[in-house]
Amino acid sequence: xxxxxxxxxxxxxxxxxxxxxxxxxxxxxxxxxxxxxxxxxxxxxxxxxxxxxxxxxxxxxxxxxxxxxxxxxxxxxxxxxxxxxxxxxxxxxxxxxxxxxxxxxxxxxxxxxxxxxxxxxxxxxxxxxxxxxxxxxxxxxxxxxxxxxxxxxxxxxxxxxxxxxxxxxxxxxxxxxxxxxxxxxxxxxxxxxxxxxxxxxxxxxxxxxxxxxxxxxxxxxxxxxxxxxxxxxxxxxxxxxxxxxxxxxxxxxxxxxxxxxxxxxxxxxxxxxxxxxxxxxxxxxxxxxxxxxxxxxxxxxxxxxxxxxxxxxxxxxxxxxxxxxxxxxxxxxxxxxxxxxxxxxxxxxxxxxxxxxxxxxxxxxxxxxxxxxxxxxxxxxxxxxxxxxxxxxxxxxxxxxxxxxxxxxxxxxxxxxxxxxxxxxxxxxxxxxxxxxxxxxxxxxxxxxxxxxxxxxxxxxxxxxxxxxxxxxxxxxxxxxxxxxxxxxxxxxxxxxxxxxxxxxxxxxxxxxxxxxxxxxxxxxxxxxxxxxxxxxxxxxxxxxxxxxxxxxxxxxxxxxxxxxxxxxxxxxxxxxxxxxxxxxxxxxxxxxxxxxxxxxxxxxxxxxxxxxxxxxxxxxxxxxxxxxxxxxxxxxxxxxxxxxxxxxxxxxxxxxxxxxxxxxxxxxxxxxxxxxxxxxxxxxxxxxxxxxxxxxxxxxxxxxxxxxxxxxxxxxxxxxxxxxxxxxxxxxxxxxxxxxxxxxxxxxxxxxxxxxxxxxxxxxxxxxxxxxxxxxxxx
Length: 780
Description:
This protein is α/β, with parallel strands linked by helices. The chain contains 31 helices and 20 strands. It has an eight-stranded mixed barrel with strand order 12-13-15-16-17-18-19-20, surrounded by six helices. It has a five-stranded mixed β-sheet with strand order 6-7-5-10-11, sandwiched between helices. A hairpin with a 3-residue loop joins strand 13 and strand 14. Helix 7 (about 130-150) runs parallel beside helix 9.
């Protein structure tokens, strides 16, 4: 927008077109306005010139030869007409743009007129004659007319007045009329000053007009946009809350005509068909309260029925009072926000619902549980929260890929939704975790029955992309407010119960018990101690002998990790190893075990081997091969004396690179042993693909076979036969008696490990055993 002009910053150079102001485009419009003003006064200047020429010809008709006088008159007429035509024919109009050269060119017009009118003064008159004074009067009137008609074109005016005044002054000085010359000079200067002041005033006025015009245009555009959007309208009521001065826009929005709507109660207009029934929307009742208390309001949303369609309006208004302070009614604005509300609902749904399954997400589940907790606390009832974790889902993702896993999650959501009713809501917390909120859980058997149905329903096979998939579900159950006074506490309790359900073998539900919090706290404290155990030197290794089943000679040791905590004493590996895996501590601990075992085995006589257990998490680390290489290089242990033991769970993570890591380790020459074969997935496929040197038979089969369990004996025989066919050795674990030793020997096992040959030994004892012949130390 053009700012209002400040006269103090409009210099003469700007008026004359000799220099631009700070805003070139702004001054280009002003110059165009100056040229347009000169055009409007062009006929006035033409008339003044012709009348002056006629008066001059009449004055000198008897004194100057006709030829001269006629030639001069023709010259004045020609110049005057040419200037008028030039002014009238200019292309510049108010609101356009003109350059500095356009304004400077007008100086030539002033110069031409000055020359034409200087000739009678210089040629026709005699000093002191009566005709000289009459001519001076004619020229004075002409100069005054020029100052008025040519004022917008300041440069042309100065050229005309200055040139003509200078000519007269020179003539008077040459004739010795110094007083008259001075008066002429003063008169010309005064006219120039008046002209410049008037030019400046015209510019200031024009700039103000331009600013107002631009503001008017802006307002018009805004009003036009306001009218065209058809989304907002004004409304007004009187003191009795009746519609007054109803605008067509407001009537159209209501589906009525302005004549009908005038004088109707405002609330009746908004209520529509429900006015007769009295079944008003809550928003309309809130509006009625605001009108009744005469309070200002804004952003008040309400639902209306307009011509059978639901519309959402947003109203704002303020009360009106007259000069005496009496209430006159309300005046406000309304907007149709139906589309905005639909967009808000969509955004709200995206924020509260899972995009994959369509179920409520964690945020929505938390809000639903919080409301259920509030209702239970208000009425003295109970609510329930179930946390569901899918069993074996990770295996589907790892083996078949995430797209199949996502479709499986959608099927799970469908089955879970079919089990819900008016009292229950389900949602997805994230990953393969789901949740159920039961608002009324006073019937404990109904709660437990639903938990069992969830497990049974989700455990049925799924058909996804031509794959038959088998997964299960574990459920943790908590009752509020008994197991938690807040939603967060109840979720925590259900999570602890779910953890216990998974520990119990999965595929079951477990209700929260108070001691679970105690166990969780103990677990937290134990984890904190475990994080510092390695740095504090609380970890150490024991070594259990592994012997040849036929000769009883020592073949090596298995390195077993032990932890003696000053706070907890000796902590069982069955307790802290799973904790280390969950806390992501298994990699640094495993690396320490590997380096320590290699360093110790390097002290033993060859070819005594050391076996080190390796977890799946370690093998998923791309840098694990470098760790093995470094441990062997630093200890000086030959590669054939190191044996790494892995479990079948490693092969459930093939997509994470564990198998490739094993292949690189085997390429180094390190031996590989499969631990606890038969207790997990026991796939023959990975046995054929991976170059294992031995298979370890779990102690449970050895103990079962010693008791005459036919299935255990058959499994041992099958494993031995399988290993022999693949060129692998077999190691029987948990051999505790001589009878068990002979039994596994008869069944074909090549190596034996167990208490019969030695318990896990401290490092000094293991070193001593390795340094002498085994057959001299075997217990009778």
